[in-house]
Amino acid sequence: MIRAVGLLSGGLDSTLAARVLMDQGIEVYAINFVTPFCNCTSKSAGCAAVETAIGQLGNIPLKRVALGEEYLAIVKAPLHGRGRGLNPCLDCRALKIMKAAEHMREIGASFLFTGEVLGQRPMSQHRRAMAIIDKHTGVGDLTLRPLSAMHFEPTMPEREGWVDRSKLLGIEGRSRKVQIALAKEKNIVDYPCPAGGCLLTDERFAEKLIDYFNHCETPSIRDMPLLKIGRHFRNTAGHKTIVGRDEREGLMMERLAPPAMHLYYPVNFGGPHILAQEPYSDAIRELFYKYGKVPGDGEASIEWVFEGEKKVCVL
Question: 3-state DSSP call for residue 237?
Fold first, then answer.
């Protein structure tokens, strides 16, 4: 039996691509990538959409891969440019395909496939972008795009007869009418909307990340969770301050606070958690008054945590 590795995001297109090949008797193995900038619905066991897709495909084998420091380096300095935000879509896709190719070789699979549709996404799914990705990865002839295959020259899986090209599709453009009809035909009924799930396309998050790159000599994947929460400020001395917006973010700040940063939070009044690179100052005090409910009479106290030590201070 011919074996193939497919990039499975959990979305409709990648799920359909897997089903189209499975219907030809291909033994499909899925690989799912998670980055620090995924903005999809998650569960403790992983991405909920991927879990649903795997279930609808008959619980096919799934490998999860977390992209870390190597991916962050690509975000900072992409070889093939960015989209409107900080999204390095071509380099991101190429990295995932190369990682999938490693898995392909490990399990003895014959080829790769993706759920890409020609013309669906402006940055990475037009003909020139796909050609760039194929050249960069070095496995373009082994990378099949079942949903748009009829718009491309036959790949090795088609030429060798591993896949029946006549049963592949020629979908093109941003409309999903064909995919939705095909999903109904193949009894794929639970899939997420096509909205993007990458924080790098979000303008506000991109601003935070640019600021981070500009002020951090050695960027680390460990710092990324803090960029996703709170209001971010940087003073004239270059010190970063993060103000939590609700209780959930406050608890996250307690858990994520680096030892070298100062953590402040209210003791006897309602207010935010504040994480700062500088010791307690009038600027920190003003933030509690701006975003908290400091009582007008009596002493308001905060707890100050730094390098594992705690002390209570009068605001």
Answer: coil
The set of residues, in sequence order, having a beta carbon less than 8 Å from that of 142 and lying 6+ positions away, is: 101, 104, 110, 111, 112, 155, 156, 157
Q: How far apart are CA 194 and CA 13, in angstroms?
A: 9
Q: What is the pLDDT of residues 43-54, one digit of tens each?
A: 444 578 899 999
pLDDT tens for each residue of 232-289: 999 999 999 999 999 999 999 999 999 889 999 999 999 999 999 999 999 999 999 9
Q: Is the pTM of this model over 0.70?
A: yes
User: Which one, of 62, 56, 52, lies nearest residue 7 by Cα?
Assistant: 62
Give the Cα separation of 83 and 90 in Å (integer): 9
Asked whether 288 and 244 are in contact (CB, 8 A), the reply is no
Contact predicate 5/100, CB 8 Å = yes
CA distance 33 to 38: 9
What's the chain's length in residues?
Answer: 315
Provide the residue ranges of all domains of the chain, joining segments of one domain with +.
Answer: 3-185, 229-314
**In CATH terms, is domain 3-185 a member of 1.10.10.10?**
no
Residue 36 contacts residue 61 (beta carbons within 8 Å): no
